[in-house]
Design goal:
The protein has about 325 residues and is an alpha/beta fold. The chain has two domains: about 130 residues, Nucleotidyltransferase, domain 5 (2-Layer Sandwich), CATH 3.30.420; about 170 residues, 2-Layer Sandwich (Nucleotidyltransferase, domain 5). About 45% of the residues lie in helices and about 20% in strands. It has a five-stranded mixed β-sheet, sandwiched between helices. It has a five-stranded mixed β-sheet with strand order 8-7-6-9-10, sandwiched between helices. Strand 1 and strand 2 form a beta hairpin. Helix 2 packs parallel to helix 3 and helix 8 packs parallel to helix 9. The two termini are about 25 Å apart. Bound molecules: 5'-O-[(R)-(carboxyoxy)(hydroxy)phosphoryl]adenosine (KG4) and zinc ion. The site of 5'-O-[(R)-(carboxyoxy)(hydroxy)phosphoryl]adenosine (KG4) has 20 residues, from helix 5 and helix 6. It comes from [Clostridium] leptum DSM 753. Keywords: Acyltransferase, Cytoplasm, Hydrolase, Iron, Metal-binding, Protease, Transferase, tRNA processing. It is found in: Cytoplasm.
Length: about 325
């Protein structure tokens, strides 16, 4: 089954054609990041406008690269939640139009479920059940993936997402948006014990995260230094901050895996591109003889191939949408 997939939840307009949930026939991503960089973060109104401008060309390009016409695909899948509402609406309405014009079934896909599905594209042998650390710009969850469309959140952030904390800390360090990747790169050059940052824990919820205190700690450190006219060693600051975030992520993920007797661990979302997170999980899983699956770095960020992958399993589970499909800014991954 060939699915034409569309993604527009944040600042990438993307389309892809995916066969049977696992085989990518084409994948096109038009990023708006250069424009949002000017403002230090995503400007929702600009994002919606750029999606509206880009979507026709991006979808056509995905069909062209797959050497298919609209009449040769079997369904349209679209990210409908969660995300920026105006941005999501562009993809949802375009997908509804295509579905109506071509008489194709419409499949609604949850953005975080699709991040998890990026792993199915890269790892043909991977099947649920497994435990997944979903870490993106807007979410940080530990999810028990019982089946392709049956999920339960067992840990979540109480405040900022890991990606958001990385981006805000990076911004305070003077790095361009989105800062996570720059902070990660610069951290490689620094000493991770140069600054003492907290490892916040949530009382009575051992799988939950809290990153806002950590973010405030680094921002305060930078402000105090600048008020005194002291220049801080950015690489050391980045390395110490990155280690604190990754320690929290790995510690809770490990505890959950042990408590749930789960020996297959998976990561998903933009922050799973973080080099320290990857190497720490590789070491942990090597030591415990657990299986570890992570998306290749090019599939960690937003793209539509992952939407086509999850769309296939949503389809198999009987999940269809009508022309009354709406976009939702927030929606649980549990459905
Ligand atoms: O999953 P994603 O592409 O979009 C959302 O659904 O939010 O995640 C984007 C987030 C951003 O916060 C970005 O800074 C972060 O992922 N990110 C990273 C790295 N690469 C991307 N954070 C830390 N280290 C990285 N290498
Ligand atoms: Zn995402």
């Amino acid at each position: 089954m060939r699915i034409l997939a569309i993604e527009s939840s944040c600042d990438e307009t993307a389309a892809a054609v995916v066969e049977d949930g696992r085989n990518v026939l084409s994948s096109v991503v038009a990023s708006q990041v250069e424009e949002h960089k000017l403002y230090g973060g995503v400007v929702p109104e600009i994002a919606s406008r750029r999606h509206a401008e880009a979507i026709v060309g991006v979808v056509q390009e995905a069909l062209d690269q797959a050497r298919l016409t609209l009449g040769e695909v079997d369904a349209v899948a679209v990210t409908h939640a969660p995300g920026l509402i105006g941005a999501l609406l562009v993809g949802v309405n375009f997908a509804k139009g295509l579905s109506m014009a071509a008489g194709l079934p419409l499949i609604p896909v949850h953005h975080l479920r699709s991040h998890i599905a990026a792993n199915y594209l890269a790892h043909p042998e991977l099947k649920p059940p497994f435990l997944c650390l979903v870490v993106s710009g807007g979410h940080s969850h530990i999810v028990e993936v019982a089946d392709y469309t049956k999920m339960r959140i067992i840990g979540r952030t109480r405040d900022d997402a890991a990606g958001e904390a990385f981006d805000k800390a990076a911004r305070a360090m003077g790095m361009p948006y989105p800062g996570g990747i720059h902070l990660d790169r610069i951290a490689e050059e620094g000493g991770d014990s140069a600054f003492a940052f907290p490892r916040p824990r949530v009382d009575g919820a051992e799988y939950d995260f809290s990153f806002s205190g950590l973010k405030t700690a680094v921002i305060n450190q930078i402000h105090n230094a600048s008020q005194k006219g002291v220049e801080l060693p950015v690489a050391d600051l980045a390395a110490s901050f990155r280690k604190a975030v990754v320690d929290c992520l790995v510690q809770n993920f490990q505890k959950a895996a042990e408590d749930f007797h789960c020996t297959t661990l998976v990561t998903a979302g933009g922050v799973s591109a973080n080099s320290l997170l990857r190497s720490r999980l590789e070491a942990l899983c090597g030591e415990k003889s657990w299986k570890l699956y992570m998306p290749p770095k090019e599939l960690c960020g937003d793209n539509a191939a992952m939407v086509g992958a999850q769309g296939f399993y949503e389809w198999k589970a009987g999940n269809r949408a009508g022309l009354n499909l709406n976009a939702c800014a927030t929606m649980s991954i549990e459905g």
